[in-house]
Design goal:
- Residues 1-54, 670-677 and 683-723 have low confidence and may be disordered.
- It is built from 14 helices and 40 strands.
- The chain is an alpha+beta fold.
- It starts with a helix and ends with a helix.
- Helix 1 (2-17) packs antiparallel against helix 2 (22-38).
Length: 749
């Protein structure tokens, strides 16, 4: 443990100095620990370990390989409405063999990842952006040749994988990722969020989708998440292994206005600095485990945060501008229309613990805000779903009390089948009812891996509904929440602790009960501009309209207009007064890529055209996307010929507040204590697999039992429904064959 602490301390110092000074420190770190590392066993048994090491299955039965260790340092510079972040990941190989480390980690969903650097001793290799398939081929070739290489791939806009090949015995290799991202603004509150842990994700099993009775037919299988193996890394059981993957964070905050409160609701922090518009923020503790997202928020010293921001940057012969404009909140009033609100609450296993309490408290708050003129219903879901009423009902005291009692009885267990309750909430039996505003409030941690199915359902079924996502817990799937709210013309609110419920829900209902700013337009007085978003969305109280544009030369003015309720509102911005900004071109390109993805989901653009646009933007602006990756290769072969390379995925922490057994189920033999290292994948521990591991015959897994008022009965995680369906199809085909054969025999007779 002392050796590990010395390594961590040296890496922490190295990470704060920047790439230029890392070489000597890494050489010193490796040299100081090489003899100890080489004396370690290549393969170990759990009983041999004297500390909380992470173990992965080795080639020999009953033996394990100690996993690579990863420490990350986040260095963030905030400049007004944007932030530049450098993430330095130190991969340490604690074994006496050669290792390929694979680390799945989160980044902000709107971040533009544009740089990666690999550091090995005193050698610094800068990555190139390539098409995804080409980058993978380059990396695999380097791995085979014994060269150290690094590959950064996007699995989701907020989920990335770093692969580092040929890490030598006892060696530490650094990988630095850089990205540009916008700062979030909500009314007078500015904030940034750094996701630090990937929550275990529920991934539905592949389903049989069609049967063909012709001579060449059969049955087809569609996987809702074909990349399931890449988004479900192993997860530590916190009862057996202390939280790992420590992080350090430094935020250099240059707000652009006089600062008031600077605070974090997620971590204890230190705030230094005397400049009225700038602060330096660090974590209060030296070693913080990566088990929850980090959030930092700040406000102006007095009065409201500036409502207009205009910034520009010149890159490659083009000018880029970004405008942040917040309409006045009290400019207009409208007669309050009654609402029809569908509340959807996630009570799956991942919501166990504090998350369930936060969700219940949030929903109870929302129910108290209903008026007798409103109508409502409540849907709860895990791997089954249940609707409290068959349709929306009047929000009478009796119905509200019944709903509160229903919510109070909920417990968290089972899988996360989100699609059926989403479709049920979107279904509108009165699509032409203009007397009521139809709203869906969806409370979940979003821990799923088949996000695109949700987006497709929203795009095709949203009708007049507006979808408001409420993210619950320490590590919500913010990509799912943000994109779903965008497609559903609503907003995303995050509640990270029970203490935040009241404030965050008040903010949400201020939006739900206020006029929506609609019919937004934007026009440049001089010259053409390539603007994003292409179609300006409706926005809510306290939200800024954020738009970016590329033009040949910044000149003239930008005029923005719209309706607040039924009252017109306009603002005119002089582009000559735009302040210089860094990374504006990257943010413009990232938003254009998001536009292409949304256009593809809405079927406004075909898949081929959307992909061509994404690829063009990614290569031009050197961004990592689902179609492009960053790859860096040290051209000097290092692994000796014949030396074995072991692939090891770095296990992640369970998000803070999560219950391991509620997510994964109890392991066989857990009553007698663990017999293997405590880590599992999110979707790998099916009932059939667990039974098979015990060496007994697999019996059919029972289907979920709905409550008497359940509206649908969904398969639980890893039931044998697919096997039964295949058996049923075989019987059907046999019956059809008999029907064909019998008349043929009669004719022959």
């Amino acid at each position: 443990m002392a050796r590990a602490r010395r390594v961590v301390a040296r890496i922490a110092i190295a990470a704060t100095l920047g790439i230029a000074g890392l070489g000597g420190l890494i050489v010193a770190t490796v040299a100081a620990n090489a003899s100890e590392a080489r004396s370690a066993q290549a393969f170990v048994k759990p009983a041999d370990m004297t500390s909380g090491a992470l173990l992965l299955k080795g080639a020999e039965p009953g033996k394990f390989v100690e996993a690579p260790q990863v420490r990350a340092d986040y260095d963030v510079t905030v400049s007004g409405p944007t932030m530049r972040t450098r993430v330095t990941q130190a991969f340490t190989n604690p074994t006496d063999g050669w290792v390929e480390g694979v680390y799945v980690y989160p980044l902000p969903e709107k971040g533009a990842v544009d740089a990666m650097t690999l550091v090995i001793g005193d050698r610094v290799i800068v990555a190139d952006v390539k098409k995804r398939e080409e980058a993978k081929e380059i990396y695999e070739a380097a791995k085979r040749d014994g060269k150290t290489a690094a590959l950064t791939e996007q699995e989701r806009p907020n989920l990335f994988t770093n692969s580092v090949a040929n890490i030598g015995p006892g060696e530490t290799v650094l990988v630095r990722i850089e990205y540009q991202a916008p700062v979030h603004q909500d009314a007078e509150r500015m904030s940034l969020r750094i996701p630090l842990v990937v929550a275990p994700r529920y991934v539905p099993k592949p389903l049989v989708t069609e049967v063909s009775m012709d001579a060449v037919g059969g049955w087809g299988v569609v996987d809702p998440a074909p990349d399931r193996g890449r988004i479900t890394p192993p997860v530590n059981d916190p009862r057996e292994t202390a939280p790992t993957n420590p992080v350090s964070i430094t935020v250099r905050l240059n707000a652009g206005f006089r600062l008031g409160e600077v605070a974090s609701s997620t971590h204890k922090i230190k705030v230094d600095g005397t400049d009225e518009a700038a602060r330096t923020v660090t974590l209060d503790a030296a070693d913080v485990p990566a088990d929850r997202d980090f959030e930092l928020a700040w406000t102006a010293a007095s009065g409201p945060t500036p409502s207009v921001g205009l910034f520009r940057e010149s890159v490659g012969g083009s000018d880029y501008v970004v405008a942040y404009v917040t309409p006045p909140t009290g400019a207009a009033k409208e007669e309050k229309r009654p609402r029809e609100t569908i509340f959807v609450i996630d009570n799956s296993g991942s919501m166990s613990g504090p998350s369930m309490g936060q969700a219940k408290a949030s929903l109870a708050f929302a129910l108290d805000r209903l008026t007798p003129a409103d109508r409502f219903d409540v849907i709860r879901f895990d791997d089954t779903m249940e609707r409290l009423f068959l349709d929306t009902v009047a929000a009478t005291p009796e119905n509200v009390a019944k709903a509160k009692a229903f919510v109070a009885r909920l417990s968290a267990e089972g899988g996360t089948e989100m699609l059926p309750p989403l479709k049920a909430a979107l279904f509108d039996p009165r699509p032409n009812d203009a007397a009521r505003v139809r709203q869906i409030v969806f409370l979940t941690d979003g821990a799923i891996g088949d996000e695109q199915r949700m987006f497709d359902a929203i795009a095709s079924g949203r009708g007049r509904s507006r979808l408001f996502m409420v993210g619950i817990g320490s590590a919500p799937n913010s990509f799912l929440m943000t994109r779903a709210a965008e497609l559903g013309r609503g907003t995303f609110t995050h509640i990270g602790s029970t203490e935040e419920v009241d404030a965050r829900m008040r903010e949400l209902f201020a939006k739900l009960e206020s006029p929506v700013i609609t019919s937004l337009t934007a026009a440049f007085s001089e010259g053409a501009a390539d603007m994003t978003p292409r179609t300006l969305p409706d926005i809510y109280r306290g939200e800024p309209l954020v738009m970016a544009a590329r033009m040949a030369k910044v000149s003239g003015a930008l005029e923005i207009g719209g309706l607040i309720g039924d009252q017109p509102w306009t603002v005119k911005l002089d582009l000559a007064k735009a302040a210089p900004g860094d990374g504006i071109s990257k943010l413009w390109a990232r938003r254009k890529i998001d536009d292409a993805e949304v256009s593809r989901t809405l079927r406004e653009t075909g898949p081929e055209a959307a992909d061509a646009e994404i690829l063009k933007l990614a290569l031009e602006h050197k961004l990592t996307t689902r179609l492009t990756s960053l790859v860096a290769v040290d051209q000097t072969p290092r692994r000796p010929a014949g030396a074995t390379l072991t692939r090891a995925e770095v296990p992640l922490n369970l998000p803070a507040g999560w219950d391991f057994d509620a997510v994964f189920g109890k392991r066989p033999g857990s009553e007698q204590g663990p017999t293997v290292p405590g880590m599992r994948r999110a979707d790998a521990q099916s009932k059939l697999e667990r039974v098979a591991a015990m060496g007994v015959a697999a019996s059919p897994a029972p289907l979920a039992t709905p409550s008497p008022s359940a509206g649908a009965n969904l398969p639980q995680t890893a039931t044998d429904a697919e096997l039964k369906l295949c058996a049923g199809l075989a019987l059907i085909l046999l019956a059809v064959g008999l029907l064909i054969i019998r008349p043929a025999r009669r004719r022959a007779a």
